[in-house]
Write the structure tokens for this entry.
Amino acid sequence: MERTVYGFIFRYSKREQVFILLFTLLSLPFYYVSLDIPKLIVNNVLNEPDAPAGGAAADGAAVDERTMAILGFEIAEVERFALLAIYSALFLLLVLVNGGFKYVINVYKGLLGERMLRRLRYRLYSRILRFPLPHFRRVSSGELIPMVTQEVEPLGGFIGDALALPMYQGGLLVTALVFIFMQDVWMGLAAISLYPMQGWIIPRLQRRVNLLGKARVREVRKVSERIAETVAGAEEMRANGMARWELAEFSARMARIFDIRFSIYRKKFFIKFLNNFLAQLTPFFFYAIGGYFVIEGSLSLGGLVAVLAAYKDLPPPWKELLNHYQIREDAKIKYDQVVTQFAPAGMRSDETIAGEASVPPFEGRLAAANVAYEEDGETLVGGFSLELPLDSHTAIVGDAGSGKDRAAMLIARLIDATGGRIAYGGVDGDDLPEPVSGRRIGYVGPSTSLFSASLMDNLLYGLRQSPLRPRGGGDDGAEREAERFRSEAAKTANSPDDVSADWTDLERAGAGDRDGLLEAVRRALAVADMEEDVYQLGLRGRLDPAARPRAAARLLEARKVLEARLAEDAYEGLVEPFERARYNINATVGENLLFGTPVGGAFDLDRLPDNDYAMSVLDEAGLTGDFLEIGREVARTMVELFADLPPDHEYFAQFSFISLDDLPEHQAVLRKADRDGLDGLDGAERAMLLALPFKLAPARHRLGLIDEAMRARLLEARRLFAEGLPAELEGAIEFFDRDRYNAASSLQDNILFGKLAYGRAQSQARVGRLVSEVVEALDLRPVAVEAGLDFEVGIGGSRLSPALRQKTAIARAVLKRPRVLVLSEATSALDGASQRTVSDRIREEFRGRAVVWSLHRPSQARGFDRVAVMKGGGIVEQGAYDDLMAKGSALADLVAAE
Amino acid sequence: MSLRQDVDLLRNIPLFAKIEPSKLKLLAFTAERLTFTAGEILCRQGDEGDSAYVIIAGEADVLVDTDAGEVAVATLGTNDFLGETAILCDVPRTATVRARTDLETLMVSKDLFFQLVGQFPSMAIEIMRELARRVERTTAQLREAVSRERAGPSGR
């Protein structure tokens, strides 16, 4: 990477910079003329001739003709008013032309700056991908993120200005100065008299501000690192009750930033003060000296006016130049700082991470010869030699410091050996580009990172190395758009690959088409023992009936079957089905009113009073007054029940309609309602009470507030709600319909199509079992599994249990069918039974291919073709499990110690 | 069945008789009303227990697994309290309880139960009294059983 920011700028934007420069130079004559015109108007048009000038005008012509001159060239003799009009029009035209130049130059500069910024950010990010893995333990994302995002941002502005600004502003300055000098040398000297002083003192002061600014950047970087750490260590913090310390630590950092900032302000505004003062000093000279000359007659009044007009234009360019100088210093240092952070030792080359070499297949033996690996000067693996047939299964065991984890990473090509070599059947590991090793070698480590996407996306991650099939159905417009994207990417050396193309390599998963892929995924899930987990996720997940009409139809069938089963005596009354004409006492009032599943936020059940339409339906049904009454009753009951509970009591979360924080507010509203009546409440207070009845479910809350008559009226409101639903809200709710699949509800709720009855012993477990039975009977399991694959796993997979995350990583590695599978304590989060199952199934699946498994429990090595025992970074013994155990060796010790 | 009725019902149960009305209302509100049809199991011997029940209407059999099979040791009726042993001393359910008739109960969770006992000594005393009564009854049964065994050979 270029060492200095100017190196970077000139390497990638020479042409553009020159273009901007030329364009800028081109604009200057126009600018100069626009300065000249006021003087011409004053001197040539407005001036009364004190004596008849010689030539044509004097010789008796009645018309007052004046010389039209531009830039000193006399063009023609024109009548006085016409000349005024011509000059004025010319002035207006030049204003437009100058503005036009400015516009074009600014846009072009913005474009250039943005392109360069894009290139720089892309470079930095691509360097992150090339970092040696151990480096990630030394830098935190909290440091990297601000560097790639906001810290380089000002560089974009600077790059566009790098050459053009000094040239343009310098040009303006010189033009204006030349103009002033041409009017009068003394005036010129007066104009620049203070420049040397400004040019000397201000940068000096500014440098100190810059240093402070840099210190501030460092502090802010540390703060973001700290926040990132807080997020990552939230559990630790809470477990140790460390909030007070953390706050103190944060407060100290804030204090430092505050001090720096304050210091910056003081210095910065002093500079401003000084600048303003010096800028005002010059006009003082003008009026004093220029005035003297005009009175003396050695300078025309027009000349002084023009000088003053030109001088008005002087300070901005000068200021810009000083400013630019400061930004330049800043940009240089910033670039330097960022670039050095992105050049750790041991980075992989671009060819290694993205190269596509044709590599002969792995055949024969995997041979590690005298491999060594160091981290921070410490030898973690040394003299590691191992040979294993590429169709055998090898276990690596050893204690925690034995280096077995690094050995596994070395074999998986995650890290680079510092000595020796690893060959995969004649192919040297060092010659393997990452895409190739990524295809042929699978790796599952002890800690699994998932991406914030669907489970399916995470499983297919390893199959998506290159865009295989372009996104289909693109019309001309889309094609042009894609072409524009590619050409813009090429201009900034960004990746031209289309992310929306289909990257999934079906063939590598052993699948011919999407159905085959699904089959392969299910097999991988089975190997990782997570099919049941995904099935359960699927039952709670959703399915898009438009995309999968057949599955939706079969789920509807399941609904009918379940309905029939629920009618049996044993299940009598366990589920209250949704019926449009009947009030469902196990559902809340809100659910009864909507009689559907909200889509998006419009009909959020917790915020129905905010919805104008829902409220208008209440009004129409004449229910608003009743709701207020009921709301008051609910609030009263809640206050009575919960007011004297300790504030942290779990009942608030579990049972109360009103959170602890809102309780005092409700108490106040109740008091007001008792005093002034319900009509005395304002909008917000009414909304507070109106929100409460919606949450009532008669079967559960037994407050006796929703009686038969009220239920009948709510049914009427339900009808009104559905019939009057405005078109723009049609997408905001999916009504319950016995004969239609509800896309907004879970699979389970679709099959159930009703509410579990409150107060029936074990209803949930019993109905759950019944649903499973029906699903099995109708062979809907694959449908549910597929829905489960759509589950969004959350940031870092946080919505999955650690065990499930680990299983996902295993399934992902199995799915891409690598030639060599390397595992490192890959089942540590699983329970014992599951560990054995997964181990057995992986070994079965990989029969005929190589498995290298660094185990966390040595006894699991039993059954592997061979066992290598590591100690202190090297292998101390290897062979068949039984042979090694018989000798009473290192392995025996390890197993005994387990 | 409304909350008010529940409160009245609870007030008639000796165990809760002396609890102040607002707490009783909280109890009624947070306790779950559970119905069982005849033959359904309320709790099974050996299971983990995290709730106790008050019988509001109906009858239930208390059954104990012995080597000789299931033995009914008691019958519970309206206002009886059951399941408290498991939540008081964190042991598995000591007996199986099966609804003899259709049964209406109020299920009280462990947390609520402890909170109430802590706040209302009268309730603790009531539970102690009930437990003492059961111990007394068990002792009597034991005494009976032992004397029957002694007398057994000659009696046969």
User: Anything to note?
Assistant: The radius of gyration of chain B is 17 Å.
